[in-house]
Specification:
This protein is 31% helix and 6% strand. It is mainly α. The chain has a domain of 56 residues. The two termini are 27 Å apart.
Length: 124
């Protein structure tokens, strides 16, 4: 949060708004792709212990080639969500008997960008 000057953002209850649909949005103002890539990279690292941000992070990661203000706004929302849920995460202890199960979603009917399709995987 400090690295991206998001430590004072207002916490939000969800990592993404349902009503906000991300698309290529080529008519909006482009933003610095290097910063966008860095933010996405940080979220990709965090998602291994925060499955609640996987979907939103992967959606935002689709637009790294030409990110716009709309895309950056969504990435910043994820950081605001993290600020409000900083003590949330997964803890795996070796004696818990925890069994990891993976699922993959191959249904890409809702993908608006046909040239690039990213698979989604969830682990429980």
């Amino acid at each position: 949060l400090n690295k991206y000057e998001m430590e004072s953002c207002d916490p939000v209850g969800t990592p993404m708004e349902i009503k906000d649909k991300l698309d290529l949005d080529q008519n909006r103002t482009p933003v610095d792709a290097t910063t966008y890539h860095s933010m996405i990279g940080a979220l990709m690292y965090l998602k291994s212990s925060r499955p609640d941000i996987v979907h939103a992070t992967c959606l935002c990661a689709r637009y790294q080639a030409k990110p716009t203000e709309k895309h950056l706004k969504e990435v910043k929302r994820i950081f605001c969500y993290l600020r409000g849920t900083v003590n949330t995460g997964l803890w795996y202890t070796k004696d818990s008997g925890f069994e990891l199960t993976g699922f993959s979603d191959a249904d890409m009917r809702d993908v608006k960008t046909p040239s690039r399709v990213l698979p989604v995987e969830l682990n429980y």
